Amino acid sequence: MTGTAIAELRAWEALDSRGRPTVGAQVLLDGGASGRATVPSGASTGRHEARELRDGGTRHGGYGVRNAVANVTGELAAAVRGLDAANQAGVDATLRAADGTDDLGRLGANAVLAVSVATAVAAAAGQGVATYAAVSEPGARPLLPLPMVNIISGGAHAGRSLDVQDFLAVPLAAGSFAEAIECCSRVRAGTAEVLADRGYAVALVADEGGLGPVLPDNRSALDVLVAGIERAGLQPGTEVGIAIDVAATQFATGESEYTLAAEGGRVLDAAGLVGELASWCESYPIVSIEDALAEDDWAGWRRATEVLAGRQLLGDDLFVTDPRRLERGVDDGVANAVLVKPNQIGTLTDARDVVRRAQAAGYTTVLSARSGETEDDWLADLAVGWRTGQIKVGSTTRSERTAKWNRLLQLESQLGGGADYAGAAALHAGREAVR
Ligand code: PGA
Ligand code: ZN
Asked: Mean pLDDT across the stretch 147-168?
């Protein structure tokens, strides 16, 4: 009896914020403590992500997860029963071995991640500490992340009204996490006012809570966002920067060919798309560009890294939180930042490994939620404990988003001088030896 040995696993089919099934799991320890977790699910998923197990058939349109749930209480429970939950790496290695496939598709990455996260939460409870503390390096100071907040949505999250998926606000001048969230909340309100004035529907809200207006083209979304920042009484570029998630994989129509459907079907090659992005950077205060090119367009990505240098160039579908793909990126000098989504790789240990490797290589890290989320808030604790420096969880509206912001607000308030706030320096940390 260690008190933190895994005694039993429970699991159930829950719902995510899109109303689709997802896996919930609970890990019970022999000392009586327990932890539970529900896992998210993406819509603009990369081809190289770990694979969720879905039931198919007619229940929930095929999205059911009863088989994944059965795998938690069956094979995965049998594998981890008796292991020490405080040894996350040991539990995660056992989960991976039990599945036996590279993409965790046999038992389901959704099943595996639910157990992995519930194990961390249970271990923290068993040790009588908060989850952020249990996942941090011994002696490391908690770090509140710089948020990037979704203001206008397009792409797969908003009926493809725009080609670019996210237009986000990055608070550059805030001195605390709470100030940063207030700043972004003002930008959202200001942007909604500008849209209403210009006759656009503001009741149309996308999957991550962003405004989903049907604008004529991608540049007009940037125009509206700048006007929204000004309407909020803030200075674009000095007080608020713009981040975009191009999510280019979603509109790639061939090898290194991109079709901007929302702009009359304009077709660009990689150089053309990079040139377009560079011209946006001349006109707007863009500080971060995610998935500028498609997931396997390494040559295009290399070009983007040269041409768009000086900004945070963030790989999501490109790296899929996979240490091997990150290694290739570092070796090839591709991108300078990694989006980290635990469910892309399937275990907390692997996701954390990517954060460490990225930071060691001078790449910045942005911990990210998915478009299909739940009200669970473990992601906030990971950001603080792992010291990712940045976080992206969607809008400042909708409870599955605010659950994460609210946990971070609670931690900042409780920790006071015992924690740091990353601030805008997180956009360059490591690259300019800030850390
Ligand atoms: P997803 O989108 O969760 O639908 O993949 C989020 C993102 O692309 O960053
Ligand atoms: Zn993305």
From this structure: 93
